[in-house]
Every structure is written in C-alpha cells, then in structure tokens.
Amino acid sequence: MLEHRVADATSTGSARTSLLTAWPVDARVAAFGERLADALRRTWADPMVRRGTLGTTLVAAGSISPAFLPADTFEHPASPLIERFGLEWLGTGAGRVLTTILLAVGMALLVDAWLRMRPVHGRKAPSLAWLLWSLPIMLAPPLFSRDAYSYAAQGQIVLRNMDPYAVGPFWVPGPFADQVDPMWVDTPAPYGPLALQVQHLVVSIFPENAYLSALAMRVPALLAVGLLAYALPRLAERYGVSGRHALWLGVLNPLVIMHFVGGAHGDAVMVALVTFALLLASRGQFVTSAMTIAAAAAYKQTAVLALIGVVGMALQAQGDLAPGAPARLRAMVRHGLVYGGVTAATFTAITAVSGLGWGWIPNLSVPVSLRSMLSPPTFVGSVVEWLLRVAGMPESVTSAPVPIAQSIGLLAGLAGIAWIVWRVAPRNPVLATAGALLVLCASGPVIHPWYLLWGGLLLAAVRLSAKHVRAVVFVTLFFVTYGVVDATVSNGTWALGVSAALWMIARWRANRRRVHEQSDEPVLAAALPRT
C-alpha cells in the first residue's frame, strides 16, 4: 500500500510539474502580480477607499436611467436587458427619483472620501484607489456626456472604409447613429488620426454593437488614468512637490473618475501622454518627449501646447545660456524649432500610417458650434445679446455680440499664452504648460467640465499655496455639482441635485475648518528634484 501511495504521489507530482512546465510563468510577471495583489489589498484596507468605491457603485446603479441611457430604452418595447431584469419601472417617475437619489448619494460619498483622503499629518493616499473607484462604473452607461456614442459611430465609419473627416454618424444609420447626440449626427470628426484609429480598433471588437462599443471606449481612458497615476507623482517629485499630494489632487480627483473614466473621454489619453512627455523632458529625454507630445496631439490637437514645457525644460538644462533677453529669445526659438520639428515629423508619420489624412483641420470649428455658457467670452456675449434683444434691436445687431466676444476672448488667450511662454516657461515649465492649457480653455468659445482637466491636473505637480489648493478643491466641487444637477434635471428631479450641491458645499466647508484647525503639514513636501 505504501508503495502504491508513493507511486501515486510521485505521478501526481510529476503531472503538476509537467503542467507547470507546459505553462511557464515568467518570474518578473509573477513578482508583478504579487506586488499588484498586495497593493490592492493595502488599498482596500483604507476605509475611505471603500467609501469611495461604494459611492461609484451607487453612481453605476443610478446611471440606469433616462439621464444616461438612450431615450427609447424604457419605452415599449423596452431594451432586451431592461425587459429581462424587469427594470422598465426605472423610466417612470418613481424610478427616476430613485436613480437620481442613488446618483447624488454616490457622488456625495465619492467627494467625501476624496476630501478625507487629503494627505495631511502623514496620511498617504493609497496608490490604487483610482482603480477601485473606477471598476464599478466600467459597465455603466456613458456618464455625464454622450461623446462615447460619437466615438463608437466614428469608429464604425472608419471600419466601413469611409472618411470620418468627410461624413458624420448619419452615414452609419441604425444603433450607431441613433445613440449620438442629435447635435453631432451630421458633423464629421474633429479628432486626431490616432484617436480615430483607436476608436476603430475598439469598434472592430464589437462591430455590430453600438452600446458595447461605447462602453469599451472606457478601456483606453482607464489605461490613461493608470499612466497618469504613474507619471504625475513622479513629475511632481522632480520639482520638489509631494508625489502623494499630486496623486490625491490630480489622479484621485472626482472629476477624473466622473469624466475621464465615466465619460470615456479621449481627453484622458491626451492629458496622460502630455504628463508623461513632461516627465520624460524633466529627465532630459527631450526628443522622446517631443515624439510623445506628437502622439498626444494625434489624439487631441491641443496637446501641442505642451511644447511650451519642453522648451522651458530645455532652457533650464542648457548650461551655456548667456544672460539677457536676446540670448534667451534665441535659445527659445532654437529649442522650439528643434523639438517642434520633431513633433511635427512624428505627427506626420502617425498621420501617414493611419491613412486618414489631414481632414481634421477644417473640422476644428465643429466643437465651437455649441453655445457654452461656461465659457466666459460666450457668457459675456450672450448677456450683451440678451440686453440688445430686450432693447428691441434688430437681428443684425443682436447677432454680433457673441462672435465678437469670442474673437476678443481668443485674442486675449493668445496674448496670455505668449506672456506665459516668455515669463513663466523658463522658470517653471510645468506651471507654464498648465497655465497655457487653462488659458486656452478659459478663452475658448466652448468649455466642458473635462476641459479643465487639461491643465488642471498638471497643477497637482506644481508647488501651490494652501489658498490655491482650496481654489482647486472649490472648482472641483463646483463642476462635480454641475454634473450632478445637470443629470438630475434630465431626470426631472432637479431638487435632489440642488440638495446634493448644498451638501457638497457644507462638506467642503467642514473639511476646510478641520484642516485649518489641525497644525498644517506642508502638503507639498520640499523634496529636491532628482538629478
């Protein structure tokens, strides 16, 4: 019997050994998996991470409503999944109230968790909190925007070998066109060729399913947030700023979870690549940095402003720069031509490989066809237009203020960016890049909440005073509230959104008092830049 047992044990052990031999696991992969699992366990142990995850889970549950799903989802005949699980009642008045409550409470919990995780008195924001907060909403409908449906339609256009710069979603009738916001059904794509080919790749996995294609647009966005979580703290530390504070203020920011992951916006990839490019430039890898900016611009063209930061870092790295404005100007022009040329050449190569051409250039005016009251120039022009209408002025007069104000805003923005290039970039390249992107956003004719993340995230890698940190927190809460109230208005239960807004204001004031009463730890530690 003993011999049989030994023999059986030997044969079993041999089978296991042969199985492991047949499926070898690289030691580095295994070590990475162990580190990832350990980091997830430590992250989940933080009660604020669990609170934020509960918040995004409630947001995902509250997204099953007319505010986010296509209008005919709950109409008879309802969507097959809605019918299968008996959720038609969520389209009724009581259902809308319930989903709105879940949405508002979920966002409130996420904001509360974020505020409590602020790294004061030695507290360290868990590195993978962004991932655990994102997972519950990966299968939720596109949140706070319908752009993901446009991405899916554009990917389908490329899949059918049509020119996305010449035709709009109207040319792919059926589910792909039906789910796009009616405002953009006839408009061709304004995005760069890399963005369109990524959308093409995503749609090719679900070629006949517009909804799943739209949800899958979150995968590039989630990967981009992961790159941000890697690059932003390291960029901050190279300029003497606490990496843990940069992670909290930038990556864990509720707007990132709402719009980059929830909304699946391509801006996430653009911002992540810009941040990584600045990190490369801070290490002296200027050519690679310029090529990375080209990839970011091939996703969204505004990324070219990051060359301001690269040129500023090149100036700082130049040891033989003579004093005086003329020498600085010559050096800036030289670095701008060199690294701008690398960016242009790389962008041209990406365009050639994509096979999509340069049709995006005339389409850059597509987004500005929307009247955005969040844009200061558009708001001022609209107010003047309203006053002229009240005064009984003819249409030829009342139609002028908005375009005039928008033109003035763009000129003021260009002047502001020029000043930033000359005065700020040589001293603080990261701040210059953030400032240029924010000035472009504020002076443009259209602002969406996620546009503020272009430069706003980079502020997390800049040495800010406590007052400026509070300003960033206030702006974050304002636009979180804006998104919640906008969704609740769509559900016809706006009072709940206003209530959530008041709660967030009260929570922010309470957090501000709590931090003020504590002895302030410098939120931006004085770490020396690495050499």
From TrEMBL:
It holds the Pfam family MptA_B_family. It is found in: Membrane. Its main location: membrane. The chain crosses the membrane at residues 52-69, 89-115, 127-144, 210-233, 298-317, 337-361, 404-422, 429-451, 471-504. Keywords: Glycosyltransferase, Membrane, Transferase, Transmembrane, Transmembrane helix. One of its GO terms (molecular function) is glycosyltransferase activity. Belongs to the MptA/B family. This is Alpha-(1->6)-mannopyranosyltransferase A. It comes from Terrabacter aerolatus.
